[in-house]
Amino acid sequence: MKVTYKLEAFEGPLDLLLHLIDKNELDIYNIPIKEITDQYLGYVQAMQELELEITSEFLVMAATLLSIKSKMLLPKPPVIEFDEYFDDMEDELDPRAELVAKLIEYRKYKSIADMLRDKEVERSLVYTREPEDLTSFLPHSQENPVEGLDVADLLFAFQRTLRKLANRNVVARIRRDEISVKDRIREVIDLLKVRGGKLLFSKLFDYDRTREEIVVTFLAILELMKMKKVVCHQHKLFEDIVIQSREEVSDIDTQFTADEINY
Question: What are the UniProt keywords, alphabetically (predicted)?
């Protein structure tokens, strides 16, 4: 008759021992080592019969249980009442103590792992959305213009400001070269003599002429026309103005009286 065993998956030998203790409702601090060892070896033998891969950890635990079982079968020394110190030594001589300590620690971490697994399952049922930018809803706070500055920085800025104010109080006098209308009239007459009594209006100005020199030149031309020394004409609209000395004047006099020039 063929018997089929249904074995649960255990993560290690300690997990299998805890399963046996919980299944039989045993006290973990007072483990009946003979019963647990027999059940443990039965599980290992079942795994071998089913041709399951048995790791070395299960075999090491089986050897450990057999070792503890053999120590438990040895006769115990007579009970002698000692003080509390010797009572503690008797507890430490229990061959199950090391195994019990490992089982308690493993149960603690297993319970924590189960709790974290439940948290993971619970969290997996919650769907979230990407965080949005909510800075536009934040209350607007005015930035501090002196943030990050200390008293020394403010003192240096104040000293620089005082130096700038001291430089502003300096008064500078600028002298400009004054050009009289009379001198400009002489220059125009000299140009007419050099050019044969005819000159284009645009030739009176250079590229580096200032606004004052241009105004004085216009006044000099108007004054010469008023004195009937020159004649200005234009052949076509928007063409250059031609300045020409009068034909009846053979020699333009460059000497003017104060009545002739009112500038």
Answer: Cell cycle, Cell division, Chromosome partition, Cytoplasm
To the question of pTM greater than 0.85 for the whole model, the response is no
**Domain span at residue 81?**
13-124
Q: Does 82 reside within a domain?
A: yes
pLDDT digits (tens, 9 = 90+) for 83-123: 554 455 555 577 888 888 888 898 898 889 889 999 999 98
Report if residue 171 sits inside a domain. Answer: no
* 3-class SS shares of the chain: helix, strand, coil, % to 5: 50, 5, 45
The neighbour count for residue 99, using CB atoms within 10 Å, is: 20
Establish how many alpha carbons lie within 13 A of residue 200's alpha carbon, considering only the half-sphere containing its beta carbon: 7
> 47: exposed, middle or buried (C-beta count within 10 Å: 0-12, 13-18, 19+)?
middle
Q: Is residue 172 part of a domain?
A: no
How many Å apart are CA 86 and CA 25, to the nearest integer?
31
Cα separation, 151 vs 161, in Å, equals 15
For residues 151 and 187, is the Cβ–Cβ distance under 8 A?
Answer: no
Query: Do 249 and 197 contact (CB within 8 A), yes or no?
Result: no
